Amino acid sequence: MLDSGLTFTDHVTYVIQRALGRLRGLYRYKTLLPEIAKLRVVQSLILSVLYYCFPAFGNSVSGEDMERMQKFQNAALRFVYNLRRRDHVSASRDAANMLPMKTVCRALTCCLVHRVLTLGEPQYLVDRLPSRGEVALRITRQESQLHFPRVRLEIGRKGFSYFGPKLYNDLPCSLKTLSINSFKCKICEYFK
């Protein structure tokens, strides 16, 4: 959902408000649930609201909006570990095996590209991810890598057609040969 300035700010605001409402609803159970249960509830009910559209608009989100999402993730971690507002959450994020939001965006985008290349569907995304061998007129050493279009403006670098293949090409070959489930596990370790 783009706003009049062709940004996702309104959509990010809506998603954060929706997730914040869910988090506030859980505060009455704060003392009743153990940490592990709170962490699972936060990951499945609250952070999943933010994660669902990261591959679609993740790189197009402004720095301010990404910072707002990071602050929300920090608030969710404070709920899980009963931290005060001024306490740092970095150690808690590491203990929970969570990645910062910007890194989550990159990991989810790589997972989407890998899934599309492995399964060959949906077709409209397969068409956006051609290999260099399909596009180039000459045979090169980089035929197996994904082609990303030439862009002149910074806004073009934020689109999925450029951002997804660029991220995926930077991954080591050992990751690209894994199954979808193994790839999801290993990509988080790679970005840590």
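Next protein, fold it too.
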Amino acid sequence: MTVTVIHSPEPTQWYSRETSIGRVSIVEQHGSLTALSFEGEEVPVAGTPGLTPLLDEAFRQLDAWLAGEVTGFSLPLAPQGTGFMMAVWLALQEIPYGSTCTYREIAARIGSPEAVRAVGTACGRNPLPIFIPCHRVVRTDGGLGGYRGGKSLKHALLGLEQGRGLRQESDD
């Protein structure tokens, strides 16, 4: 096995701040976004806290999206995962704003119709939730399914996209 170490003059940067859904942290590495974490989650890298132009733009677009002013993002994303995970995450980005699809449908779209649970795992490991919209994936029986930010946040994000506004309730 060969391991290649990539040295970049651009250090890993991250920034955390309050949003309408609570505290959010976003990570930038090599000029692309690599992670988003919600309140209570650890920032998934060792890096330097600081607001870069890209992180500032990411928060600006996130705020506009959460306010219902825009329906998508134009940001450089560089999630890290297996080939299967990358295929799932690409398929998630094709789900239109305001729509949902099932884990089973995503499995079929990527050519692995029997890999429904693996699709769920890939959604759960999505390092860039919201930017890569795993909240749009629901269970075949109509249930919400899981979400890293909690079921109440998933419900709120789907409500926002369906024109009901951003209303979060307790996960209890």
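About the second fold: DSSP finds five helices and six strands in the chain.
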